[in-house]
Amino acid sequence: MAVRAVDEVHLLEERVAELVGPQRYRLWFKDATHLTVADGFLKVGVPNLFVGNWIENHFSEALVKAAEDVVGRRVDVAITIDASLARNLRKKQPDRQLDHADNYPSRQARARKRSGSAGHPMTLPGRLDRFVVGSSNRLAYNAARSVAEAPATQFSTLFLHGGCGLGKTHLLQGICNEIKERHPNLQCLYVSGEGFTNQFIYSVKNGDRDAFRNRYRSVDVLVLDDIHFFANKRATQEEFLHTFNAIDTRGRQVVLASDAHPKLLGELSGSLVDRFLSGIVVRVGSPDETLRVEFLTQRAKRMELDLPDEVIEYVAGNLEVNMRELEGALLKLLAIARLERLPITLATAKVALQDHIAHCPPLIRLSDIESIVAIYFGLSPADLHTSRKTRTVALARGIAMFLARKHTDMSFPEIGRFMGNKNHTTVILACRRMKKWLLEDTTVRWLSPMGDRRGQLSSIIPELEAQFLNGSASH
Questions:
Q1: Which residue in 227, 234, 345 sits closest to 276, CA to CA?
Q2: What is 312-323 written as a DSSP string?
């Protein structure tokens, strides 16, 4: 059975390489992913959120096709974070990944031109009736439900924020699907921040700006995910501001989501932040143990698995992670049980997830910290993983390393490996520098497309800490 599984993974890797092309396979999959198929799922382990989001957004169809060709049936794709993969990345691989991402919009625009598609189809997987509700996300769910039932009635702008894998995209897609069913006469458009940006660039290059504006400004409900993608993109921000104002003036609904609170969205214009704060801003918090138990119970039910209560309680009690990582742990348990032909018992779960639990720091994760820091400085987490040493990247990377050392149990070498295979001395020096600057109340400077920026480090650090320490639900 184990030999057959190894052969299956090898064939799967070869098929993925054929579908995405050898160059993109080497860049995004070779040394950067771990593929396994179990119980109707293709599990894709990735080293960080940037790689995971990119693969999910650009290669999901190829992965589904590859798995279907190899195993003979259709499977769903599950992206999970496996920080141990970071050490496998070649030294310059994060740099090349980011360069590829920076240059991607023009290629994507050409593909969109060939297909004639400008918007996101309304076949979205997220549904409100499948969203698992608990104390940490109840307000966000109720706000989403309110929008879906009566758009622009209670509030015209809803802004959801919180860490990755907590269900923001699920809620946004659920809103769209429910509006389609409840209000078929209303035009609802779902798009990511990257999608909006790419379509805007395409419209400018090809002289179709009027068509672009008519499409977006005439909708009844605009749902935009990952608004932090607009950071450092002045022209896109200005275009979206006009779009937002046009929709708001008509008394229609705008729903937005980001990994950070509007006030901490680096390099975003003050006018946009003011618009976002004029509505209701709701935090989607990390799941508590009760919510994790309920999530695993419902997930097992949907997969038609007979999962013992003691196994569910063990996984939920020992993994203080987001929903995406929780699902990844469940898939790992199922895969190991299948390969070893073991029953899913508490003993099996303890053995199968021993390494997973050992490398899962409680409560606060470096991935959350680096995401919040990167967004504050108008960067992506991938920027912090590269070897680039611009003033802005170096400052953000140093702050992320300092906060990781302060708020997690990770060692200097572990932090360095996670953040792009940096040497542990780099982390030590960054932490010393941040401590020194805090003691001296140093004013730090960084460069942005909007000019030279500055601020007191003693003020910036608490603002960032509040994002992953403060459990408050709303603005």
A1: 227
A2: HHHHHHH----H
Instruction: Work out the average pLDDT over 78-87.
Output: 69
120-283 in CATH: which number?
Answer: 3.40.50.300
**Model confidence at 471: pLDDT above 50:** no
- The half-sphere exposure of 293 on its side-chain side, counting CA atoms within 13 A, is 11
- pLDDT of residue 56 exceeding 50: yes
Helix (H) / strand (E) element for 133: namely none
Take residue 266 and report the two structure tokens written for it: 């680096």
Q: For 366-469, which CATH class?
A: mainly alpha
Its pTM surpasses 0.90: no
Alpha-carbon span 463 to 60, nearest angstrom: 36
Which pLDDT band holds residue 146 (cuts at 50, 70, 90)?
very high
Nearest 5°: phi and psi at 189? -125, 125
In three-state secondary structure terms, 42 is: strand
- Per domain, the residue ranges of the chain are 1-116, 120-283, 366-469
Could you tell me which CATH number the domain at 1-116 has? Answer: 3.30.300.180
pLDDT tens-digit readout, 180-219: 999 999 999 999 998 899 899 888 888 888 999 999 999 9
Query: pLDDT at position 116, please?
Result: 38
Pairing, β 443-448 against β 451-456: antiparallel
Which of 10, 116, 138, 129 lies closest to 66 in space, CA to CA? 10
Which residue stretches of 59-185 are H helix? 60-71, 93-102, 104-115, 138-149, 168-182
